[in-house]
Design goal:
three-stranded antiparallel beta sheet; about 70 residues; 3 strands; alpha+beta; Double Stranded RNA Binding Domain; about 20% strand; single chain
Length: about 70
């Protein structure tokens, strides 16, 4: 199962310098970590917990298989 993750550099003082958000749009989840690898690791842990909870509650998981990313210049 491939789940897309969008990484975004965090530019405020509330977290250590070099931190990134990891947005998981298919699951409507967001986490963060230090560097891309830290954010990726935290996202992986969060996804596993989310999937385990769904499985424990006998809930199905239906993920969209098509994702597009774009920017809008302002």
């Amino acid at each position: 199962m491939n789940i897309p993750v969008l990484y975004e550099k965090i530019n405020d003082q509330s977290l250590p310098e070099g931190s990134f958000y990891a947005h998981i749009p298919a699951l409507n989840l967001t986490t963060h970590g230090l560097g891309i690898e830290g954010a990726k690791s935290d996202a992986s842990d969060l996804i596993k917990l989310w999937l385990d909870e769904k499985k424990a509650n006998n809930e199905s998981v239906n993920l969209n298989e098509e994702y597009l990313f774009s920017t809008i210049e302002m």
